[in-house]
Amino acid sequence: MVLRVQSLEASEAQQLGLYNEVVDDDQLGSRLTELATEIGSGPTMAHALAKQALHAATRLSFDAYMDLEASSQALLHTGFDHDEGVAAFVEKRPPEFRGY
User: φ, ψ for residue 58 (rounded to 5)?
Assistant: First the structure.
């Protein structure tokens, strides 16, 4: 796609996963606020490690990347947010993550 100079129809772009949703202009601000609130209330340590993994994906070997992923998963399973996420799922309630 990078090398082809060709326009995409909106339906093609969606099928390729280039965007998630479309909102009307007058709803954009409120939708952005909803998304920011959703992401901001998530498990911050998991988000940080996911971002670290994304950045590392282009510079690490496969084996080194798998080691990074394994150590991240091990760390995340020891934290409060993991226990809170599991408890919230079992209790069918929204989680209250604390970032550790």
Answer: -90, -10
